[in-house]
Write a structure and sequence with these properties.
The structure holds 2 protein chains of 2 kinds.
Chain A lengths: L6 E6 L2 E6 L4 H7 L19 E5 L7 E4 L10 E4 L19 H7 L11 H5 L6 H9 L3 H7 L8 H5 L6 H16 L4 H11 L4 H9 L2 H9 L8
Parallel strand pairs in A: 1-5
Antiparallel strand pairs in A: 1-2, 3-4, 3-5
Helix pairs in contact in A: 4-5, 4-7, 5-7
Chain B lengths: L1 E6 L9 H12 L3 E5 L21 H12 L4 E4 L2 H15 L2 H10 L12 E4 H9 L1 H7 L8 E5 L20 H8 L3 E3 L12 H4 L1 H17 L4 E4 L2 H9 L1 H7 L8 E3 H8 L6 H5 L12
Parallel strand pairs in B: 1-2, 1-3, 3-4, 5-6, 5-7, 7-8
Helix pairs in contact in B: 1-12, 2-3, 5-6, 6-7, 9-11
Classes of the chains: A alpha+beta, B alpha/beta.
């Protein structure tokens, strides 16, 4: 006979539920009968849609993580967050200089940073969030772009920040400015964009679009990955 | 070359880059390398006076942990504000174990605990006490040629008592440096007054009035230029001359220098175009050789 599934007791929005041990928070919520339409996305830890705040039994700390990557444990308290309504100014990237003046205008809140590091503590990607905010304050847009490169924009840094900074939105502006103005042009990319525009791949793409699902899957898994020579 | 850990502060990476570069270049002439910390954050300025507000000392103490991470027990500052904030926060936790424990506990993600064992230095007293003005005088390649300077100290190097680098009412350290470099100094009653500080953000007029009184006062004593150590004083006294001139058409503009720019000049280091570009009033107009 199969071994009995170990169950753990968790609290969802204050209500107790028994769910199989080893599930992620997202799977546990669904097991408990919740249908998620917000605060859920790729389920692979890449899209940043499922940032969540939770507390483990016996620990006073409120913790932050991705609901699709965090495993439930006995006595855990969960509160799924649908989205982070953080400030996001509209701007025209072609009219912004890649330096501190853009941030003074659009994100003056970064100068409120007291270096408490709470953002870094809450980042599920283990980024040095405070360090990139500090790099911005000293006008180093490139360093901010570099340090924040793996940001998946879950918004947990902004949720936990006592200075109410919107780190992840300021960081994507830094990456955009860096990509547009500060990085060296990538010739491979320029050439590829040109090839696409000239229709070099249209025939192959049409074939893929028409292909049935099984064939497409087979082709995908058997594809040869060529490295640049 | 002797290495000293160096904390720049945000302004020295942007609008006061001339201050930083001239200091680093000058110190090399004395075989000293100011080695910038790998990681650092805003000093936390301004020093928080509220007794129950520890949050605003975390930034300062975190920087001192960074100094320890680089296996150093002392850190050099240039900006008068950073010096003031770092040194005072350091003194606060040095004399208050409970504060230090709370801050260390809050920063549980740091690898090191801070033990209040870093010395915060400022370049001006270092020049006076360690390198000495007499040695500087011997190294002068281009004399300031009797150009008359008025020293402007501002607040944060002289107050409060616990961190002052000189007599708060009759400071002479900037004057003595200028003399060592071959310049002349004039005395004004405004040398230790306030430049208007952060009023410059939303009450420009307050700063315009301060700038007019201070620059006019220096000119009346025969000064041709101002020498200072604080990026905020330098901004207010130099860049706000634009608004001052607008309001007072008879106002005569005067260049404002960081002491390190004059030190670099005296040691024969080229006054770079990038430094000049960060000034509002043309700094090179006063040099006679």
């Amino acid at each position: 006979m199969a071994e009995k599934q170990k169950m753990v007791k968790i609290h969802i929005l204050g209500e107790p539920f028994y769910v199989p041990d080893g599930l992620t928070i997202i799977n546990a919520l669904e097991y408990a009968g919740f249908q998620l339409t917000h605060g859920i996305g790729c389920r692979e830890g890449f899209c940043g849609a499922c940032g969540t705040i939770f507390r483990k039994k016996g620990d006073y700390k409120l913790q932050a993580g991705l609901a699709c990557q965090t495993i439930v444990s006995e006595g855990m308290y969960l509160a799924q967050i649908p989205f982070v309504p953080a400030e996001k100014p509209i701007y025209d990237i072609t009219k912004l200089p890649p330096d501190i003046t853009s941030f003074k205008e659009l994100y003056p809140v970064i100068f409120r940073c007291v270096a408490c590091n709470t953002c870094t503590k809450s980042c599920p990607q283990d980024l040095e969030v405070m360090d990139y905010v500090q790099a911005l304050i000293k006008g180093d847009v490139e360093k901010t772009a570099d340090l924040s490169f793996d940001c998946i924009r879950c918004g947990l840094c902004a949720l936990r920040c006592p200075a109410e900074i919107v780190q992840y939105n300021a960081a994507i502006l830094a990456r955009r400015l860096c990509g547009r103005y500060l990085l060296k042009e990538s010739r491979d990319l320029t050439n590829r964009v040109k090839e696409i525009a000239e229709g070099d791949y249209d025939t192959e793409l049409d074939e893929l679009v028409k292909m049935d699902e099984d064939k497409l899957k087979k082709k995908y898994y058997e594809r040869e990955i060529k490295l640049f020579d | 070359m002797k290495k000293i850990a160096y904390y720049p502060g945000c302004t020295l990476k942007t609008t006061a880059a001339n201050f930083e570069e001239s200091a680093i270049e000058s110190m090399k002439k004395f075989d000293i390398e100011l080695e910038e910390l790998d990681r650092w954050n805003c000093c936390g300025t301004v020093f928080s006076l509220a007794t129950d507000d520890l949050m605003h000392h975390i930034a300062a103490i975190r920087n001192l942990i960074r100094v320890k991470e680089e296996k150093s027990n002392q850190v050099m500052t240039l900006c008068a504000m950073c010096y003031n904030t770092l040194k005072r926060s350091n003194q606060r936790v040095k004399s208050n174990q409970e504060d230090l424990d709370k801050i260390n506990d809050f920063m549980y993600k740091e690898d090191l605990n801070y033990n209040a064992d870093v010395d915060v230095l400022h370049l001006l007293p270092y020049l006076r006490d360690e390198i000495t003005f007499s040695k500087i005088a011997k190294r002068v390649k281009k004399s300031l040629n009797d150009i008359k300077f008025s020293a402007f100290y501002g607040c944060t190097l002289l107050r409060p008592k616990e961190i002052q680098i000189d007599d708060p009412f009759m400071p002479t350290i900037l004057e003595n440096l200028i003399t060592a470099l071959g310049g002349e100094t004039v005395e004004t009653p405004y040398a230790i007054e306030c430049c208007g500080a952060y009023q410059t953000v939303n009450q420009v007029d307050v700063v315009v009035e301060r700038t007019k009184v201070i620059i006019d006062g220096a000119r009346n004593q025969g000064a041709e230029a101002i020498v200072t150590s604080c990026p905020l004083c330098a901004f207010n006294l130099d860049h706000r001359q634009k608004e001052t001139k607008k309001k007072y058409s008879k106002f005569i503009e005067m260049p404002v220098f960081y002491f390190t720019e004059l030190l670099a000049y005296g040691l024969g280091i080229e006054f770079k175009k990038e430094w000049k570009d960060l000034h509002y009033v043309d700094p090179l107009s006063i040099f006679k050789n």
